[in-house]
Task: structure prediction
Amino acid sequence: MRIQISSVSGFAKLAKLKENSKIVETPTIMKISTKSDTFYWEIGDRKERFSLNLPPRYLSTEISVTENFDFQFIANLFMHKSLSENIIEKQLNKTLETLRNSVESYSKEKSLVIVQPPKSAQIFEKILNELNNLELQNIAITNLLPFINNPRQMIDFIAKLKTVLPVNSLLFLLSPIPHTYLPILSYTGIDVFSNGFANIAAKQRLYLTDAGGDKLEDMNEITCLCEICSKHTEPKEFISSFTESSVGEFHSLIIHNERIFAKKIREIRSAVKKQDLRGYIERAIQINPFSASALRLLDKNWIDWLIARTPTWSTVPIKSITSYGFTRPSINEFQKRVHERFTISSSKKVIVILPCSARKPYSESKSHQKFRAAIDSVANNKRGYIQELILTSPLGVIPRELESVYPAAHYDIPVTGDWSYEEKQIAIDQLVGVLSEIDSDVTIIAHIAGEYIELCEESEKILKRSFIYTSKNTRATTDTSLENLAKEINKIVEPLSPIKFSADTYKIQKVADYQFGIGVGEAMFPEIYSLKGRPPLPFKILRQNQQHGVIHYSTGKLTLSMKNGGILAKKKKYFVMFEGEKLEGSTLFAVGVKKADPEIRPSDEIVIVDKNHALLGVGHALISGRDMETVRFGAVAKIKSKVK
Amino acid sequence: MTILKGILTDQLCTMREKALRLRKSRAPNKAIAAWIEDDRLINEAGKALVIIMNSSGCDWALGEGGGCSMCGYSNDTSEVITDENLIEQVQKVLQEFSDKTFQSVKLFNSGSFLDENEIPIKAQDEIMKMISNLSKVTEVIVETRPEFVTKKALKRLKAILGNDKELELGIGLESSDDFIRINYINKGFLFNDFNKAVKLAINNNVRVKSYLLFKPPFLTEKEAIADTIQSTIDSIKVGARTISINPVNIQNGTLVFKLWRDDLYRPPRFWSLKEIIQIVWQRIDEEGLRNQVDRIVSDPSGAGSQRGIHNGRHCDKYFVKALKKYTLTQNPEELDQPNCWCETVWRELLEYEVVSRDSSLRLVENAHNLLK
Result:
């Protein structure tokens, strides 16, 4: 059995399970099937499926493994939270001994161990470490239902599994959880769900719908148009068709309910494939308070891990409709990087705060073309004194140089002119953060109107300095206010001595800083460069007709050249340390990895180095740096170029 | 007898100590309860006088064994009880019910009647003497663990009671599976110990009633059904002529209580008990055991309540009645009624518990609630 990660998204992942040319993609469901009167599980919601035996009793002293199943349960840990730690530990040791003694009789990739919500965090940590030592990483969860009213405990339990075990481990959920819990639990990291609830609900005459379910007798509309349901358009007829035929069996109801499950899991898988699981989740959590609380708790308590496992670079639009979008990992990380990796150059003497626009990147919008025209009216040799900042929700502040970086050019929000309290706080925090270290001789011009004024005024109070307002009483795009803006800027820059400035170089450096850390930009790009390219093609970074890398239009990501890879390797940043001396092929596998920079996130540009930090190649990460160190098999990065 | 520790023993000892500290004090000279009930006698329906004595408690629960995982009877005992107290308890009950008719006396002391530490010989003898004077009584039932069954004790009691009254020892075998009994129930003795006690009893003209525990913790309900069926047949084969099937009920201070409170244990369902009884009678016929069994009874404590055997409120009260009727008539067809839609749900959950090893499926019994 091979388990191959295609992509990660928070704790969720898209993975391919492969064996003998059969492929099952996760997230998926598992269902009970029969063959010559014996039950077993089938994993997969498409034609190709893998089989799994039935779970063993607790405390089985031997492992019975047969060739008949693709996956096999090998142990069921006796760890009910009602038991004393003493008992749990004693029995755990016995089970581990059995597992160690019969290590030859089972295959690790095919084996599953059953766990349940633990007595204490310590004992759970111990159990997981022991499983790690045995290299058993496929886990089935049971007895999860008591947490159905306790999102905090459920999230913490599953997230613990996801953070202690390697990222390519598989989590199976044996407890028959309702389909409405599938989205949030996928995002928390369950890979395979039992669809048992579909059957159990059918036996209780429950007709499942996308958003929940109704008792047959309470149905007023048939909302499903599948071939079973569409036979009857009248609820009454429909109900009697179920109840008259073979009372108590509800065969067609089971089929319908199972389809609802299959549909849900396919929606989820499709969202992961489109790299838009987070967007899907933000919509799906409205289904019940549990899901909404769970997402909040994940964002609050597990954000570091979510960020680590969320690709930095993407092209997927972000629709930030609800407040759940404010804490989205991509947004959170952008804000953090603007804080930590963006500094306003000391040569800047004027900072212009601008409103955002619907069109992204901003400079392609009509309003920003007007703003830029006004700003560019200053003498060419004074342009380098000006720094533009764009104020927006929920990202806060976007420096002009980072306007194409994901997700700055990829988000959309409902615009009404009213900012919520939270949105205001975010914007003020970000603005104050960016401006807090600015010298007192720098002038801050707020070319904003309407609801933005309040944000700037609040920031003035916190910063204890005053801004110049150039469009306070009229829209920012009116001729008067644009003239005002040009006038105020000119007033400041006119007396200053001329300076050299290349907007392209400044942008390239700031993108490199954003990507790899402060100072990297100037180290990699110490000369004057220009950006050439026509969207949607990547911009080439050119100097004297020589290419020094590209910046992708669709993601804003800078691609490493070998020369810049060398610089990054020296700085010991974004490195993956390779065990060997020479790279082969186009993929780096887990077995070759000795160490990796924990800052690395999926999709990040990376350098592959040897034990002495000498450059071996450049490429991009498939999983996070933390995860590269813990996975035992599978691809960790793509190699783009190698040292010859 | 040596103590056979199970995997739960240590925890049960700790829990027991705690529970005993919370024990209420009771008047030592008053029985805890006594009543007359309809009951199945050896050959027919009749009346039984039940006396729950206030004793010093079960040796197994108070000692190094820690007691059984589902048993909270030690909560209803007192620290110091003299033989006079015990005699007085029975005396008072017999006086109170002197104008009532009953053919059977059942003496329960939350432990072992034959344990001299719990019921001193003097008290055992006096109590038997009092009962021997009740002319209408034809059978006397006491309870005991197998280690206290000795030839000497049996002969002594039998001599006092006389030959016109049957003496029956109720022994809590619980399950004929040693692993389940030792580890999940923490009973501390083997099937073979039970077997020996039964042989001894039979040789001294004393009958044995095998108490079976239906649905010990850590088994699925389906496994529990199979276990109780097998245990019934095994009990009959070694010579127990009365079988009492006891579905677990939740008693405070026990491990089962803790599991139940954590949503990891659900008392069994009536449907399962019905299945056990009907299959057991089939098996008895198939294996030609009819003449080796007098009665298979079940009089569950807390039947129909959340803490006792129950289905799902729709049909519980009908089942309580049907079960009572079955016990009196010994006709398993009495359980053919009631019919209820929840039978389908039961069957589904029975299977899902096996395939998921999830002990918290009680929470999907009302699946609609989870969709709100």
